Amino acid sequence: MLLEDKNAVIYGGGGAIGGAVARAFAREGAKVFLAGPTLAKLENVAREISAAGGMAETAEVDALDEKAIDEHADAVAASAGGIDIALNAVGILHVQGTPFAELSFEDYSHPITAYTRTHFLTAKAVARHMVKQGSGVILTLSTPGSRLSGPGFMGNGVASAAIEAFSRILAGELGPSGVRVVCLRPDAIPEAVPSSHTREVFGGIAARIGTSVEDMLAERARTATLLKRLPTLAEVADFAAFVASDRASAMTGAIANLTCGSLVD
Q1: Would the pTM count as exceeding 0.85?
Q2: Would you say residue 172 lies in a domain?
Q3: Looking at the domain assignment, is residue 265 inside a domain?
Q4: Which residues are registered as beta bridge partners of 7?
Q5: If residue 215 lies in a helix (H) or strand (E), which one and from where to where?
Q6: How far apart are CA 62 and CA 64, in angstroms?
Q7: What range does the domain containing 89 cover?
Q8: In a domain, 45, yes or no
Q9: DSSP one-letter string for 32-47
Q10: N or C: which end of the chain has fewer CB within 10 A?
Q11: Model confidence pLDDT, tens digit, residues 56-114
């Protein structure tokens, strides 16, 4: 197993991506610690992991609250003996689809402030423990908006670009201590729409062009990706498990392109 005897913290572990990655980590032998704002969602994921023979614990944690994040990370490290892997898969509702001339500064700045805050605070909390043990992997999450240009996603695009810059620079900060940092950049994942904040986030854009979120994503898959499809949760989760493992131990400071070719590096 890729992650045998590893301890992994998943912020946003009750969401579509966080839950999928948690299941993959547990399948590969990690003990997963699911953190998020809604205990019921976390416990659903934990039950699935336990039923499949894995190990999972849950905790209600506001991933924008520094004190709560620090206390949770300290508790995990104390009980498990350390933190080997952390993923921030927190989803934050924000406005998309509003033209720049109509966009308020508050709607523009909200995703930038919230996403950069949660990634900074969660990375700092786990890094303290990883640096002490001389090893660890921090995974962040961005979107193709970091490199695309177009109408309706100003705040999201700037936030994603900031997360990617943060990840590259953090890799330089922590590399000498043996800690790796990799940013995952999937495109939209259609199967995540029913169980995540995706529908609400993309709803503004879909409404502006007079279509549904599902049809909008299907059209994007056909016309904007090299593979003529969008990534699946399993693909993202399986890659996360690989890159968190020792098999990817030479990889840090990287942005992993999981877009099915909507972006080409």
Answers
A1: yes
A2: yes
A3: no
A4: 31
A5: helix 213-224
A6: 5
A7: 7-257
A8: yes
A9: EEEEES-HHHHHHHHH
A10: C
A11: 999 999 999 999 999 999 999 999 999 999 999 999 988 888 999 999 999 999 999 99
